[in-house]
Amino acid sequence: MDRRAFLRISGAVPVAGLAGWPPPDDWERLRRRLSGPLFRPGDPGYAEAKQGFFTMYDDRMPVAVVGAARVEDVQAAVGFAARHRLPIAARSGGHSYPGYSTVDGGIVVDLSRFSGVEVRPDGRALIGAGARLGPIATTLAAAGRVLPAGSCASVGIAGLALGGGVGVLDRKYGLTCDHLEAARIVTADGRVRTVSAVAEPDLFWALRGGGGGNFGIVTGFTFRTVPLRDVATFDLHFPVGTQAALFAAWQEWLPTVPDELWAGIGIGADHANIGGTFLGPRAQLDALLADLIRRVGTPPSGQRRQVLDHLSAMAAFDDPESRPGLVLDRAAYIGTSRMLMRPAPDPAAVVDVLLATPGVDTIIDSAGGAIARVGERETAFPHRKALASFQFLHGAGPEHGGEATARRALAAVRDGLGPEFGATGYVNYLDPEMPDWAQAYYGANLPRLRAVARKYDPRGIFAFPQGLSVPRSTVHMGET
C-alpha cells in the first residue's frame, strides 16, 4: 500500500485532496507567507524540486514542495497541511529507501536551505537539518573537529542522526545521536521547540534513535564534537570462496579488538573484503590484522593500508567502486537490514543465505565498543548490544528488473536470516515489507516511542505507513 492510499483509507486525506484540493487561493496565500519558494505541479523548477536521491520515485507527484528558508516557513507548511488534511514529510538528504520523503499527493518540506554549520570555540557545532555529511565534515575539519557520522557525503544529517547514526568511528566515539545536545523542532501544533536533556526530555529522548519524520520537523541540531585525528585505514580482499571463512573469523576477532578499531565486511557472489579504520599506531593495526588473517586461514589476494587525514579517510569509504553497481549522485537501488545480536553459531549457513539470491550485496558494519556502553533505554536507539548491523542492497533500475524484483530478492535474504537474527532491523534502512517492522526497528523502546508520538502528534499530522503517529481524526487545525 502506498502512502496516498494509506492516508486516504485512514481518513487523513479528503477525497477532494486528490483532485484539486486545496483551492488555488489557499495556495497563493501560503506562497505569500513563505520566504522560500513554493513549487506546485506545472511550476518551473517543480520537476527538480520534488526529486529525492532515488530515481525510482521520480513518478511521485507531491502537491507542493516548500523550499523552507526559515523556521517560519516550516511552521506555515505544517499548519497548512494540518488544516487541509494533507500528508506532509520533511526531506533532508532524500535517502529514504522507500521514498517516504517524496510524498505522493502531499507536501514535501525541503530543508536543503537549512545547511549552515557553525563551530563554536568550545567544540560544539550548530548544524542545520538540511546539511549534508560532506560539507559538515569539511567545515568541522577546518576547525580541528569531527562529528562521528556516516561516510556518504550526500546523506543528510537529519535522517542519519534521528535514526541513530552509524559510522566508521562509532566504536570509539558512539553513534551520531549520542553527541546530540539539543534540537530545534516544529511539532504538529505548529510550535517551535528547542529540546534537550532538561527541556522536554521525553521528546529529546525520542529524537535520539526514534527515526525521522515521527515527531515533527527538526530544523537544527547542536552536537558535541571530538578533536580531529589522523586515521589509519585498511582494505583487505580475500579470494572468492572465502566468504564464510572471513565472516566466521571476523565475528570471533571483533570482540577482541580495541574500541579504536572499526571493521566492516563486504560480501557478494564475486567478493569477500574487509575494510576499516584504526585510531592508533600503524604497528598495532598490523598486528591486529595479522591475527584476523590467521583466523581466516587464507592470505588476502590484495590489500591496502595507509594513514590518512580524516577527510581523506572518509572520502576513501565514499568511493563508488566500493559498492558494486551503485553510484552516489542519484541512484536506483534499495536496501533492508538485520541486526546481529550475538555471534552466529553457524557462520557458513548465514553466508549461504547471503549468496543464495543473485544480485544481493551485503555490508556488515561492526558495532560494540562505545555504542554498547549506553543502555538500550537511555536513548531511543535499541540495538546497543548488537555485534553488527547487516545492510542488504540490490539494484532497482530497469537493468536489474525494477524495484519489485529487487524487493523480492532482498526479502529472500532478510526473511532467510529471520530465524537466526530475530525481529531486528535498523530504522535508517527502512523496508516497507519488513515483517513486524515496529518491533524490529524499536525493540523494547516501542511503547515509550508511541506514547511520545501520541503526545506531540495526537492527530497524526506526520503519519506515514511506517510511522509511529496514527491518524485519529480529521478535525481541522488552525494555521499557525
Report what the structure shows:
This is FAD-binding oxidoreductase. Belongs to the oxygen-dependent FAD-linked oxidoreductase family. InterPro entries: BBE (IPR012951), FAD-bd_PCMH (IPR016166), FAD-bd_PCMH-like_sf (IPR036318), FAD-bd_PCMH_sub1 (IPR016167), FAD-bd_PCMH_sub2 (IPR016169), FAD-linked_Oxidoreductase (IPR050416), Oxid_FAD_bind_N (IPR006094), Oxy_OxRdtase_FAD_BS (IPR006093). Keywords: FAD, Flavoprotein, Oxidoreductase. Pfam families: BBE (PF08031), FAD_binding_4 (PF01565). By secondary structure, the protein is of the alpha+beta class. It folds into three domains: 123 residues, Uridine Diphospho-n-acetylenolpyruvylglucosamine Reductase, domain 2; 111 residues, 2-Layer Sandwich (Uridine Diphospho-n-acetylenolpyruvylglucosamine Reductase, domain 3); 212 residues, Vanillyl-alcohol Oxidase, Chain A, domain 3. The protein has a seven-stranded antiparallel β-sheet. Strands 5-6-10-8-9 form a five-stranded antiparallel β-sheet. Strands 1-2-4-3 form a four-stranded mixed β-sheet, covered by helices on one side. Helix 9 crosses helix 10 and helix 9 crosses helix 12. The longest helix has 15 residues. The chain is globular.
Q: Given the helix and strand composition, which structural class is it?
A: alpha+beta
**CATH top-level class of the largest domain:** Alpha Beta
Gross morphology is globular
Question: How much helix is in the residues?
Answer: 25-40%
How many structural domains does the protein architecture include? 3
Question: Using DSSP, what is the number of strands?
Answer: 18
**Fold-level CATH name of the largest domain:** Vanillyl-alcohol Oxidase, Chain A, domain 3
Under the CATH scheme, the architecture of the largest domain is 3-Layer(aba) Sandwich
Measured between the Cα atoms of the first and last residue, the distance is: 32 Å
Q: Any idea what the radius of gyration is?
A: 22 Å
